[in-house]
């Protein structure tokens, strides 16, 4: 059924066609926190991201995670204030568009969507890699004469795609089922992480140093900037709870759920970063990259216990695939509802009232992109290229949303100073920080080489991926503005 649901507090919507049909308000505080936590995917970020960051900042993982948390927390305050005033499936796309400019709003929604689809594409590969590693532990090392390779992009992608399709079908079934599934997965993941990382703090033989927590000891400003972008990427996803703001029973629970997920992420990252450095020397930590968590587990325990971190990584990847398609489909639903995209994106499932068609379309795009990504030879190269590019665009759209909060609520500086600090000053400081480090990293990529090459360590290639994520949205926006004559761009959508 095609529909344009009306969001609480957001004013009337533009009908794509047919009557108003709202998505169900079926989520509570813990459900929202579970979606946000699954989107940030702590286990995947720890299992993959810490090794990549160690190669950049050395033995300062706790410092960079704590440093990156501060601007993200400040920006989260802006997200929460915007959601309290206007819960909307489009979240930052709508907020930035209404407050700053519809072109900037569209850009915010577009890079969020494209970045998430890229994330889904390579996370399918990570999922397949963890499955192959588990099969190897079970002594199943070949199928039909083909030797399984956990670092083969082709094999890992094909296996992961089957998981992606299954996760999308569960999302179509409804957020209540998806949230219950993700809460169960999170309990297992966190239990494994707490157990292994807690044990690693005491069993590790690498000498502990307070310098691990000192950001001034990071080798260079370039390392600091790239480490910040990578760390912000690890926190990326907390805002997914705001995209289901129309499906949360109490709008305040979306803000609380996002903040709860962020604080839990910080504690998990600090624990894991310290534990990894207690157990693994820097060269081993940096060299294992995408297989870092499995290697960490193998150093602490024998089989079958050593397989638990790998199982947790696989479940985290599955949960993050599902929690990625959920907010992305709702963002496209909001764009379709505003006439920016076609009415197909507004079609809700007749029984479950979820944007089913959009969910399946987004999944299809991720499948195509994942198949294109098999040209990258190894999982480690694929992850490295994608994470840096996504980190830059995440810094951009977080900053735009923060500026929208500051502009919209600037009057609070005169009427309510505490709220003004939360909704205006904090977001502005966070935005300035992310724009600076993201811009500096983009410049270092540009300045690092004098030629273009399809390689994960080529600066022009890494920068071009980020630029493509942005510029591909321009013709879509132009079509919506001048051909569709979308009310969103003409100032008629409220």
UniProtKB/TrEMBL annotation:
Keywords: Cell membrane, Membrane, Transmembrane, Transmembrane helix. InterPro entries: AA/rel_permease1 (IPR002293), APC_superfamily (IPR050367). Its main location: membrane. It is a multi-pass membrane protein. The keyword Cytoplasm does not apply. Gene3D superfamilies: Amino acid/polyamine transporter I. Residues 1-20 are annotated as: Disordered. Pfam families: AA_permease_2 (PF13520). The chain crosses the membrane at residues 33-57, 63-82, 103-132, 152-172, 184-204, 216-238, 259-280, 305-326, 356-376, 382-400, 421-443, 463-480. The keyword Transmembrane applies. It is found in: Cell membrane. PANTHER family: AMINO ACID TRANSPORTER-RELATED, MEMBRANE PROTEIN. This is APC family permease. It comes from Kitasatospora putterlickiae.
């Amino acid at each position: 059924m095609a529909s344009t649901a009306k969001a609480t507090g957001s004013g009337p919507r533009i009908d794509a066609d047919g009557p108003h049909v709202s998505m169900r308000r079926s989520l509570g505080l813990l459900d929202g926190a579970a979606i946000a936590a699954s989107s940030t995917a702590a286990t995947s970020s720890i299992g993959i991201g810490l090794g990549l960051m160690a190669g950049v900042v050395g033995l300062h993982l706790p410092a960079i995670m704590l440093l990156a948390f501060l601007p993200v927390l400040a920006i989260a305050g802006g997200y929460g204030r915007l959601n309290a005033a206007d819960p909307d499936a489009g979240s930052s796309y709508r907020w930035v568009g209404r407050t700053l400019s519809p072109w900037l709003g569209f850009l915010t929604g577009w890079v969020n969507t494209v970045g998430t689809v890229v994330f889904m594409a390579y996370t399918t590969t990570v999922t397949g890699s963890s499955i192959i590693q588990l099969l190897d532990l079970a002594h199943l090392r070949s199928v039909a004469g083909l030797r399984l390779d956990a670092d083969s992009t082709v094999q890992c992608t094909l296996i992961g795609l089957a998981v992606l399709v299954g996760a999308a079908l569960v999302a179509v079934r409804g957020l209540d089922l998806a949230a219950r599934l993700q809460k169960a997965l999170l309990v297992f993941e966190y239990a494994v992480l707490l157990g292994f990382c807690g044990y690693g703090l005491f069993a590790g033989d690498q000498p502990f140093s307070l310098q691990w927590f000192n950001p001034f000891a990071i080798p260079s400003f370039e390392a600091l900037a790239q480490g910040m972008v990578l760390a912000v990427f690890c926190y990326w996803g907390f805002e997914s709870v705001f995209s289901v703001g129309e499906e949360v029973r109490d709008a305040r629970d979306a803000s609380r759920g996002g903040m709860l997920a962020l604080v839990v992420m910080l504690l998990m990252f600090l624990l894991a970063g310290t534990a990894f450095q207690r157990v693994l020397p820097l060269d081993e930590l940096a060299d294992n990259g995408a297989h870092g968590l499995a290697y960490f587990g193998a150093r602490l325990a024998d089989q079958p216990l050593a397989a638990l971190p790998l199982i947790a990584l696989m479940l985290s990847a599955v949960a993050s695939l599902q929690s990625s398609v959920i907010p992305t489909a709702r963002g496209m639903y909001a764009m379709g509802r505003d006439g920016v995209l076609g009415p197909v994106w507004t079609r809700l499932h007749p029984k479950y009232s979820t944007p089913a068609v959009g969910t399946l379309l987004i999944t299809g795009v991720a499948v195509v992109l994942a198949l294109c990504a098999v040209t990258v030879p190894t999982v480690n190269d694929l992850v490295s290229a994608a994470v840096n590019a996504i980190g830059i665009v995440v810094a951009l759209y977080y900053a735009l949303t923060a500026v929208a909060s500051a502009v919209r609520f600037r009057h609070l500086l005169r009427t309510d100073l505490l709220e003004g600090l939360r909704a205006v000053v904090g977001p502005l400081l966070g935005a300035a920080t992310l724009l600076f480090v993201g811009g500096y990293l983009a410049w270092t990529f540009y300045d690092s080489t004098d030629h273009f090459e399809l390689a994960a360590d080529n600066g022009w290639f890494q920068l071009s991926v980020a630029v493509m994520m942005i510029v591909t949205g321009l013709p879509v926006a132009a079509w919506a503005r001048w051909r569709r004559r979308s009310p969103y761009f003409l100032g008629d959508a409220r």
